[in-house]
Amino acid sequence: MHIHHLELSEDRDLELYVSISNLKMLIAEIKSKNIPEEVCYKINYQIDKVNSCAIDNSIKIQNLLDMTYHSILHIIKTDLGIIPKNYYRDLYTTLGMTIFGLPLGLLLTATLDNSINLVFGVVFGLIFGVILGTRKDKIAQQENKVIQKFI
User: Fold this and answer.
1) How far apart are CA 69 and CA 93, in angstroms?
2) What percent of the chain has pLDDT over 70?
3) By CB neighbour count within 10 A (0-12 exposed, 13-18 middle, 19+ buried), where does 6 fall?
4) Which residue from 49, 76, 85, 116 has the fewest beta carbons nearer than 10 Å?
5) What burial letters (b/e) apply to 21-41, b meaning 16+ CB within 10 Å?
6) Per-residue pLDDT reduced to its tens digit, 60-77
């Protein structure tokens, strides 16, 4: 089973051109991976929705393209475990700041009676999240489970 081509022309305004080319690059990147048939059906369904749309409004087309892009990313992430580049770094940076850094900063602020310690806690959580996320991204890269992120 092969993945269908996107049949939209790129000769429109700049924002639409960027969305179309990003989706085409994502599809090309997915084609280079070994994808099971049931996942190909799901991706082809999303591509066929875009190919069969009869919308003339460029804003609606761009919204459809962006929704399709994120739907395809969600499909390959949930079904295959393939993630965009720096996915874990971005995720763990946020989690490190909010789950680890902020409570640590509040604890230091309450203990030492100095509000600057809140900043130290958040920065510590940010660094902790970046380190853990980068490590998980390297593991995913070694397993060939990473694609380029085009948006």
Assistant:
1) 24
2) 96
3) buried
4) 116
5) ebbeebbebbeeeebeeebbe
6) 888 999 999 999 999 999
Q: How far is it, in rounded angstroms, from Cα 7 to Cα 21?
A: 11
Cα–Cα distances in angstroms (integers) from residue 132 to residues 10, 56, 101, 124, 147, in the given order: 39, 45, 14, 12, 19
Helical ranges in 32-101 per DSSP H: 37-51, 58-80, 87-95
For residue 140, with 0-12 CB atoms within 10 Å meaning exposed, 13-18 middle and 19 or more buried, which class applies? Answer: middle
- CA dihedral over 62, 19, 87, 29, signed as positive or negative: positive
**Could you tell me the residue ranges of all domains in the chain?**
14-81, 87-146
Closest by CA position to 65, among listed 114, 109, 122, 24: 24
* Whether pTM exceeds 0.85: no
Instruction: Please check whether residue 146 is in contact with residue 85, taking contact to mean a CB–CB distance below 8 angstroms.
Output: yes
